[in-house]
Design a protein that fits this description.
Layout: E1 6-14, E2 44-49, E3 60-66, E4 69-76, E5 80-84, E6 87-90, E7 93-99
Antiparallel strand pairs: 1-2, 1-7, 2-3, 3-4, 5-6, 6-7
């Protein structure tokens, strides 16, 4: 996955030992700072990669859509631990990443 590609990410689940917990959708305030937690599972966003996706760096994108609603913004994960095909494992979460 390379800089400037359009992608869709889907958070599948937290990793076994995340740095921070994953709250339920009801306990997360979208569009606000939620300190000390990751985004909820089943979060889906699309946008444009701001840099190549590489181990050791966060996945960062200019978001254009969040959970089916147009929502411009910046999205960043915790640092990537491994990449296996379409699955990106970060310090907190497992994402499916699809080039669109």
């Amino acid at each position: 996955m390379k800089k400037d590609q359009k992608i869709q990410i889907n958070k599948l689940r937290p990793v076994a030992n995340p740095v921070v917990p994953t709250p339920s959708k009801e306990d997360y305030a979208y569009g606000q700072i939620n300190p000390g937690v990751s985004i909820p599972s089943d979060y889906i966003a699309s946008g444009t990669l701001l840099d190549d996706v590489v181990v050791g760096q966060p996945l960062e994108m200019l978001r254009s859509n969040r959970n089916g609603v147009e929502s411009m913004g910046f999205f960043s994960t915790s640092p990537i631990v491994k990449i296996e095909g379409k699955h990106v494992y970060t310090q907190n979460s497992v994402y499916k990443v699809t080039i669109i």
